[in-house]
Amino acid sequence: MERIMDHLAHERSKAQFSVEEMKIIWAGSLHAFQVSDRIARLVASDPGFRKDNRAVLSRKELFKSALRKAAYVWKRINELALSEEEASWLRFYVDELAYAYIHWGMFVPAIKGSATEEQQQKWLPLANNMQIIGTYAQTELGHGSNVRGLETTATFDQETDEFIIHSPTLTSSKWWPGGLGKVATHAVVYARLITDGQDYGVHGFLVQIRSLDDHFPLPGVTVGDIGMKFGSGAFNSIDNGFLRFNHVRIPRNQMLMKVSRVTRQGKYVESNVPKQLLYGAMVYVRQIIVADASIALSRAVCIATRYSAVRRQFGPPHEDENGKGVETQVIDYKTQQSRLFPLLASAYAFRFVGEWLKWLYTDLIQKLEANDFSTLPEAHACTAGLKSLTTSAAADGIKECWKLCGGHGYLSSSGLPELYAAFVPACTYEGDNIVLLLQVSRFLMKTISQLQTGKKPIGTTAYMAHVEHLIQCRCTVQKAEDWLNPSVILEAFEARAIRLSVACAENLTKFATPLQGFSELSPDLVEAAVAHCQLIVVSKFIEKLQQNIEGNGVKQQLETLCNIYCLNLIHKHLGDFLSTGSISPKQASLASDQLRSRYSKLRSNVIALVDAFNYTDHFLGSVLGRYDGNVYPKLYEEAWKDPLNDSIVPDGYHEYIQPLLKQQLQNARL
Ligand SMILES: CCCCCCCC/C=C\CCCCCCC/C=C/C(=O)SCCNC(=O)CCNC(=O)[C@H](O)C(C)(C)COP(=O)(O)OP(=O)(O)OC[C@H]1O[C@@H](n2cnc3c(N)ncnc32)[C@H](O)[C@@H]1OP(=O)(O)O
Ligand SMILES: Cc1cc2nc3c(=O)[nH]c(=O)nc-3n(C[C@H](O)[C@H](O)[C@H](O)COP(=O)(O)OP(=O)(O)OC[C@H]3O[C@@H](n4cnc5c(N)ncnc54)[C@H](O)[C@@H]3O)c2cc1C
C-alpha cells in the first residue's frame, strides 16, 4: 500500500496545544463534535456525495445532480433513521445548494413562526415528510429590501371565503425565491392583504403553485427560473425563480393567521402578538447565517493556511527538517501573516458570537412562547447587525484567502472561487447588509434617546448605561503588554462605539425632520452600527475566554486569537478610534507592536488551529487545502481530469486552427 506522506507533519508537531480538545471547543460540545465528526466521515466515504466534478457540469447537469443528491440525502436520512440533529449535519456536509435549504431553512420556519397551531398541525407534517416542497416567496422584481412596498395582492372574497392572489404589475412578479423556478409545489407568499376595500399591508399566505400529480403549474400560475448566477457551480444548482399570479384563489384559512386574521365576514382582526413576528423567519435564518459565515470563512482560512505552509518562494537558503536546501515558506512572510492570521482569528470570533446568537434566539423563542416580546427588538438588531458584519467580513476574507494562494488560488480545484461565489450573495440575501446596518442604527438611536427618559439599556446595549464615563474616559495603555488586558480592550471598543452613536444622535437633532437626518447621516449611522456590532463580537469572545476552557494550551491559543482579532480591528479602524479620542496615536502604535508580537506567538500553532475545524478533504473540496499537504502531484492530477484534456488534439482543431495555420503557411510561401 502506498504510504501517505504528511507534508504538514512537521508543522503539526510544533503545535503548543491539544488539537483534539480544540476540536471540541470549535464544535461547541463533545456531543456536537462526535455527531458532526461521524456524519462528516459518513458523507466523505459515500461516492453518492461526490462533488469534485461540479465546476465542469452544465447548468442542467448541475441542477439535476443537485436534485439527485437531495433525493439521496432524504433516502439516507430515512434508511439510517437519522435524528433531526444528524440529518442537519448530513445536509450540511453534503455541501450542495439545493431547494432543500429553502424548504427546511425558510418555508418550514415561516409556517412555524406565523401559522396558528391548527394550521401548523395541517401543514407541518406534509412539509416534514416532504409530501410538499416549499419556498419563501417574498422578494419581487421591483421590491426586495422594502418589504412594505411589495405589490402582490391578496384580496378577500367574502362570497367564496377565499383570497385572490394576484400580481398586478410586472414589478410585482416574485423574483429570487430559491427552489421556486422548477421544484417547489407550495410557497409562503407575501402579499398585501385587502379586505372590505382596505389595504392592511403585507401578510403571509400559503399557496399551492404546482400540481402534486404532474408537477405542472396550477391554473393562473406562471413560474420559471430567473437564469444563471455569478460563478460556476455555486448557486447555479438552485432554481431561483420568478412567479406571477393571475387571480389565483386560495381558501381563507391559508392566510398565516398567528399575527392577525380575517374572519368569515371579512373583518381584519389583530392578535396580541407584535406584527414584526411576521418577519420571524428572517430573524431565524439571519442567526443561522452568522454560523454559516464562520464556516465559510474557516474553510477558506484552512485552505490558505495549509497551502501557505506548503508553498515556498524566495528567501535565504533554508534547510528543511531533512537537511535539504529549500526556499522560505510563504507563511513566514510577515505580510502573509498580517493578512491571514486576522482571518483565522475572525473565523474563531464568528464561531463564538454565532454560538451566543443561537442562545439569544433560543431564549427569544422561549420568551415569545410565554407571550413576552420584550427581547424582540434586541434580537432583531443583533441578528440583522451580526449577519451583516460577519457575512461582509467572511466574503472579503474568502477573496483574500484566494489571493493569499497566488495563482493557484484562482483554479477551480483550489475550491476558493466556488466558495466565494456561493457565499458572497449572503451579503445580499436575508437583507442587504447596508439596509440591515441601518436597522441597527435605528435601534441604537432609539436606545440613546431612551437613556434620557431613565430607561435602563439591557443586553448588548447595557454598556450605554455608562455613557457619561465612556464619553470622557481615557485609555490607560502605556506599554504594548497593556493591550493584552481584556478590560482595556473592551473599554476602548465601548468608548468608540458609544462616541460614534452619540455623535450621530447629536447630529440628527440638527435636521428639520428625523427622516431627513437619517437620510443625510446614513453613512455615519452605518459606521456607528458597525462599531456596535464589532463590540458585540469582541465582548462575546472575551466572555468565552472567561468560561471554563479545558485542554492543554487551548485557552492560551484562544487568548492569542482574541488579541489578534481585537488589535487588528483597532488597526483597521484606526480613524474611528483616534477621531473619537478613544485611544491616542502613541497607544495605536503600541497596539500595532503588540499585534506583530501576537502573530509570532501564533505562528507555530496555525496548522493545528485549522486542523481543529475538523474538516474532511471531501468537505473542503480543495487540492490546496488537503490535510496531507500533498499539493503539487494532486494539482497535476486534477489538471489531467479537465474535459479539455480528454483528447490530445482539441475539438475545433480541424475547423478553426488547422485552416488558420494552413492559410498562414500558404501566405508565407507566396
Ligand atoms: C437543515 C438545513 C437548513 C438550512 C438552513 C439554511 C440556512 C442558511 C445557511 C446557508 C445559506 C445557504 C442558503 C441560502 C438561502 C438564502 C435564502 C434567502 C432568502 C431571502 O433572501 S428571503 C427575503 C429576505 N428579505 C429581506 O431580508 C428584506 C430586508 N428588509 C427587511 O427586513 C425589512 O423590510 C426592513 C427591516 C428593512 C424594514 O423596513 P421598514 O423601515 O419598512 O420597517 P417596518 O417593516 O415598518 O418595521 C418597523 C419596525 O419593525 C422592526 N423590524 C423590522 N424587521 C424586523 C424583524 N425581522 N424582526 C423584528 N422586528 C423587526 C423595525 O426595527 C421597526 O421597529 P421600531 O418601529 O423601530 O421599533
Ligand atoms: C442568491 C439569492 C437568493 C435569494 N433567495 C431569496 C428567497 O429565497 N426568497 C426571497 O424572497 N428572496 C430571496 N432573495 C432576494 C433577497 O432577499 C434580496 O435580493 C435582498 O433582500 C435585497 O433586496 P434587493 O435585491 O431588492 O436590493 P435593493 O434593496 O434594490 O438594493 C440595491 C442597493 O440599494 C441599497 N439600498 C436599498 N435600500 C436602501 C436604503 N433604505 N438605504 C440605503 N441604501 C439602500 C442597497 O444597499 C444596495 O446597495 C435572494 C437573493 C439572492 C441574491
TrEMBL record:
Recorded superkingdom: Eukaryota
Binding site for FAD: T139, G178
A family per Pfam: ACOX_C_alpha1
InterPro entries in UniProt: ACOX_C_alpha1 (IPR055060), Acyl-CoA_ox_N (IPR029320), Acyl-CoA_Oxase/DH_mid-dom_sf (IPR046373), Acyl-CoA_oxidase (IPR012258), Acyl-CoA_oxidase_C (IPR002655), AcylCo_DH-like_C (IPR036250), AcylCoA_DH/ox_N_sf (IPR037069), AcylCoA_DH/oxidase_NM_dom_sf (IPR009100)
A GO term, aspect molecular function: FAD binding
UniProt keyword annotation of Flavoprotein present: yes
Active site, per annotation: E430 (proton acceptor)
Cellular-component GO terms for this entry: peroxisome
Keywords: FAD, Fatty acid metabolism, Flavoprotein, Lipid metabolism, Oxidoreductase, Peroxisome
Compartments, as annotated in UniProt: Peroxisome
Acyl-coenzyme A oxidase N-terminal domain ranges (all copies): 18-133
Gene Ontology terms describing biological process: fatty acid beta-oxidation using acyl-CoA oxidase; lipid homeostasis; long-chain fatty acid metabolic process
Cofactor(s) it depends on: FAD
Domain Acyl-CoA oxidase C-alpha1: 279-445
Protein family (similarity comment): Belongs to the acyl-CoA oxidase family.
Protein's name in the database: Acyl-coenzyme A oxidase
Species this chain originates from: Rosa chinensis (China rose)
